[in-house]
């Protein structure tokens, strides 16, 4: 059993683990938020629905998504057809259900068919899972760079320097991924950018109106049962930051 095995692994370790598990010749049960990892490792999928129901599918994650969509599409067609039949029978029964005429006998026959359908179980209308929506307020406009590193060096006491003479800038439209092995200093660089740490040498210049919101790694911990993700995020973000407690 591997619950979220890639959470704290760097890229090289994830690639190695993915290759190793794809060749594993014994039973493997894993939970992962990585679609690529699931696609390359798994052969079957168990879907835990919002109604706490387990549904089994053959195939990896992409195959599961395709099959699930096809099943729900067919189920919706069957549901609509059945509802049309029920509506038609009910209208007929309401119109001709009284008396002894030929139409009344047909209405009684339709009522028996309808009762049999109900006893046998009607097709349930497929329910789409509620999507998660995020709203980020407009931060306004700041001239670039909004955060600049000039000849920045940093190292922890009694340790080799992590960075030497680092120069780069971040603009409002920047989307930056920090990748590297564990221990390379990715989190330290984020702390330098947020002002939590100060450089050993050089200069870090944030724009005077820049406000930084940070979702910390500590938010990965399991919240108390009553807590919900938005509530956890409210406590994890500074109130003054875009998307902070006052705006989540």
TrEMBL record:
Domain ABC transporter as annotated: residue spans: 164-208
Residues spanning the signal sequence: none
Pfam families linked to this entry: ABC_tran, ABC_tran_Xtn
Residues covered by the ABC-transporter extension domain: 50-133
Molecular function terms from GO: ATP binding; ATP hydrolysis activity
Top-level taxon: Eukaryota
Region (Disordered): 218-248
The entry's keywords: ATP-binding, Nucleotide-binding, Repeat
Identification of the protein by name: ABC transporter domain-containing protein
Lineage: Eukaryota, Sar, Stramenopiles, Ochrophyta, Bacillariophyta
């Amino acid at each position: 059993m591997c619950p979220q095995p890639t959470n704290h692994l760097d890229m090289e370790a994830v690639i190695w683990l993915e290759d190793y598990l794809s060749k594993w010749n014994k039973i493997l049960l894993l939970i992962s938020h990585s679609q690529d990892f699931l696609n390359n490792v798994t052969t079957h999928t168990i879907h835990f629905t919002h109604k706490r129901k387990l549904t089994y599918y053959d195939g990896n994650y992409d195959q599961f998504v395709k099959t699930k969509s096809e099943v729900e599409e067919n189920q919706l067609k069957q549901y609509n057809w059945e509802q049309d039949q029920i509506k038609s029978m009910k209208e007929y029964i309401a119109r001709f259900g009284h008396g002894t005429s030929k139409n009344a006998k047909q209405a009684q026959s339709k009522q028996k068919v309808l009762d049999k359908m109900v006893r046998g179980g009607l097709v349930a209308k497929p329910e789409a899972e509620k999507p998660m929506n995020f709203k980020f307020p407009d931060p306004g406009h700041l001239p670039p760079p909004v955060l600049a590193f000039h000849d920045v060096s940093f190292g922890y006491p009694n340790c080799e320097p992590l960075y030497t003479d680092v120069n780069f800038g971040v603009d409002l439209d920047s989307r930056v991924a920090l990748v590297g092995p564990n221990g390379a200093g990715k989190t330290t660089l984020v702390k330098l950018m947020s002002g939590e740490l100060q450089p050993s040498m050089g200069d870090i210049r944030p724009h005077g109106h820049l406000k930084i919101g940070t979702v910390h790694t500590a938010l990965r911990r399991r919240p108390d049962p009553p807590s919900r993700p938005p509530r956890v995020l409210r406590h994890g973000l500074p109130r003054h930051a875009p998307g902070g407690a006052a705006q989540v």
